[in-house]
Design goal:
- The chain contains 7 helices and 7 strands.
- The radius of gyration is 21 Å and the shape is globular.
- Helix 5 (151-171) links the parallel strand 5 and strand 6.
- It has a single domain (4-245), classed as NAD(P)-binding Rossmann-like Domain (Rossmann fold), CATH 3.40.50.720.
- The N and C termini lie far apart (81 Å).
- It is α/β, with parallel strands linked by helices.
Length: 268
C-alpha cells in the first residue's frame, strides 16, 4: 500500500533526487518536476524499479510562472497530492556588484515565486477536495548567514522561510501544514549548482563530525510530511550538523581568565 503521493521539484539531481529516493524507499509514489527532462526520467525510472513505487515526470522551467502554477494541477489529475516538496533552487555565485536585474529575478522566480505559486494551487485543489496535504520548502542556512556571492540566493531563502510562516498561518484553517528544512552544506552531485573543492573544504567544517549525507535531508522531509509531525507547522528545521549553533573552528579567546574577569584588581 502506498504511503501517499508526493510531488518533488528539483527531483532530477542534488538534494531533490535524494528526497525522491528516501520517499520512494518508504513507500511514497512520487511525481518529480525538473528542467532536466532526460535526467529526470532516468532518475524516476530507476527509483520506480528499485522501490516498486509509481513515479511520473513533469519537465519544465520553474521560472515560468505558468508552469510553476500548473504542474501541481497536472500531478493532481493523475492522483490527489498528499505532499509537496519545493526542493528546486538555483545558486549562481555572483559578486554583489555584478548582480543585475535579470539574474536577481531568475533566482527569486525559481527559489521563491515557484514555491508560492505551487503552494497556492495545491491549497486550492485540496480545499475543493476536502483534503489536507503537507508542504515542505527546502530553505537554507544562507537565509540567516550571508556569504560572498550570495546576496540574491540568501535573500531568496530568507524570503522562503517567511513564506513558510505566512502560508502556514493562512492555510491552517484548511488543515494544511507548511514547514521548511534548512540544510547546511551537503556535497551532492549536481550539475545545476556545482561547487569548488575549496568551497567544499571550508563548508564541511561542521560542529558534528561529517560528512553530511543527503539522506539526512530526506528523512527530515519525510517526517514533516507524515502524521508524526501533525502538530508542527510554520517551522524551519535546521539539518546542518550543528552549524547554526556556532563553530568549533575558532580558538578559545584566552588561555585562562584574566584578573579583571575574576574580579581582582591588579596591584600597581
Amino acid at each position: 500500500m502506498s504511503a501517499g503521493h508526493a510531488v518533488v521539484t528539483g527531483a532530477a539531481s542534488g538534494l531533490g533526487a535524494a528526497i525522491v529516493a528516501d520517499l520512494a524507499e518508504h513507500g511514497w509514489d512520487v511525481t518529480g518536476v525538473d528542467l532536466q527532462a532526460a535526467l529526470l526520467t532516468e532518475v524516476l525510472d530507476r527509483t520506480a524499479e528499485t522501490w516498486g513505487v509509481t513515479t511520473t515526470a513533469i519537465a519544465g522551467d520553474l521560472a515560468d510562472p505558468d508552469f510553476a502554477a500548473g504542474f501541481v494541477t497536472t500531478a493532481w489529475k493523475r492522483r490527489a497530492v498528499d505532499g509537496l516538496v519545493n526542493a528546486a533552487g538555483i545558486y549562481p555565485a555572483i559578486p554583489f556588484l555584478e548582480i543585475d536585474a535579470a539574474r536577481w529575478n531568475r533566482v527569486q522566480a525559481v527559489n521563491v515565486v515557484a514555491p508560492l505559486l505551487a503552494t497556492q494551487q495545491l491549497a486550492r485543489l485540496a480545499v475543493a477536495a476536502g483534503t489536507s496535504p503537507a508542504i515542505v520548502n527546502i530553505a537554507s542556512g544562507a537565509a540567516t548567514r550571508a556569504r560572498p556571492g550570495t546576496a540574491h540566493y540568501s535573500t531568496s531563502k530568507a524570503a522562503l522561510v517567511m513564506l513558510t510562516k505566512a502560508s502556514a498561518i493562512e492555510l491552517a484553517p484548511a488543515g494544511i501544514r507548511v514547514n521548511a528544512v534548512a540544510p547546511g552544506f551537503f556535497a551532492v552531485d549536481s550539475a545545476v549548482n556545482p561547487v569548488t573543492d575549496e568551497y567544499l573544504a571550508l563548508l564541511s567544517q561542521t560542529v558534528l563530525p561529517g560528512p553530511a549525507q543527503p539522506r539526512f535531508i530526506g528523512s527530515a522531509v519525510r517526517f514533516l510530511l507524515g502524521a508524526d509531525a501533525a502538530w508542527i507547522s510554520g517551522d524551519t528545521i535546521a539539518v546542518d550538523g550543528g552549524s547554526s549553533a556556532g563553530t568549533r573552528s575558532l580558538p578559545q579567546h584566552w588561555a585562562a581568565p584574566t584578573e579583571l574577569q575574576s574580579g581582582t584588581t591588579p596591584e600597581n
